[in-house]
């Protein structure tokens, strides 16, 4: 493999290239590879993780916005050339690559767009049974946090409504070039068997976002925009704050609201 310095990390793209091959192998090995044959790596950079994915019995695709990285990958991973997609993951219609086939997502994600990557994954959850990758440690912990935690919020609830989230291990700044100022964390999301909610999903997203935007208020106060009946607001669940409720209780709350407003 060519010199690590061949591609210069670009600050505006949030690039921190992983240099430690043992960690790259560990991340590649987090996927179970069950129920799908395609994997999409986001932001492969110089391919330290890609190399280990290519050894597996799957079809690896990579999506990369950085022209210099794309050039490097084409020159160094010849067998990958026709599966390098020079696109912006957040803006690109992934059905152009996968049609309606299932695929997993993996990557060492740029910190500045990592939450948006998760939200896009949630939109495509019917096609994405597994998701694994590296985030800023705080974000990875937030995604996996449970009710009662200070960091439990919109990202935690919406992700865990559809996926089992597991924080796997912490990665120090020293294994990156350039080193970030914070630790990183690797997590794994496995889609739940029953990932369709027993309530209106659009309403669920709206209830969660509205409730957590005023997380210090009780639900009786933060959900006023729904014009709920006095009878429903008398339910003890409305005396709690959203961060006190588990994902299943928040789904239950949405069902109560749905019945009330219909």
UniProtKB/TrEMBL annotation:
The keyword Transferase applies. It is found in: Cytoplasm. One of its GO terms (cellular component) is cytosol. Its EC number is 2.1.1.182. InterPro entries: KsgA/Erm, rRNA_Ade_diMease-like_C, rRNA_Ade_methylase_Trfase_N, rRNA_adenine_dimethylase, SAM-dependent_MTases_sf. One of its GO terms (molecular function) is RNA binding. It catalyses: adenosine(1518)/adenosine(1519) in 16S rRNA + 4 S-adenosyl-L-methionine = N(6)-dimethyladenosine(1518)/N(6)-dimethyladenosine(1519) in 16S rRNA + 4 S-adenosyl-L-homocysteine + 4 H(+). It holds the Pfam family RrnaAD. Its main location: cytoplasm. SUPFAM superfamilies: S-adenosyl-L-methionine-dependent methyltransferases. Keywords: Cytoplasm, Methyltransferase, RNA-binding, rRNA processing, S-adenosyl-L-methionine, Transferase. It comes from the Bacteria. Residues 23-193 form the Ribosomal RNA adenine methylase transferase N-terminal domain. S-adenosyl-L-methionine binds at residues 16, 18, 43, 64, 88, 108. Signal peptide: none annotated. Belongs to the class I-like SAM-binding methyltransferase superfamily. rRNA adenine N(6)-methyltransferase family. RsmA subfamily. Specifically dimethylates two adjacent adenosines (A1518 and A1519) in the loop of a conserved hairpin near the 3'-end of 16S rRNA in the 30S particle. May play a critical role in biogenesis of 30S subunits. PANTHER family: DIMETHYLADENOSINE TRANSFERASE, DIMETHYLADENOSINE TRANSFERASE-RELATED. This is Ribosomal RNA small subunit methyltransferase A. The gene is rsmA.
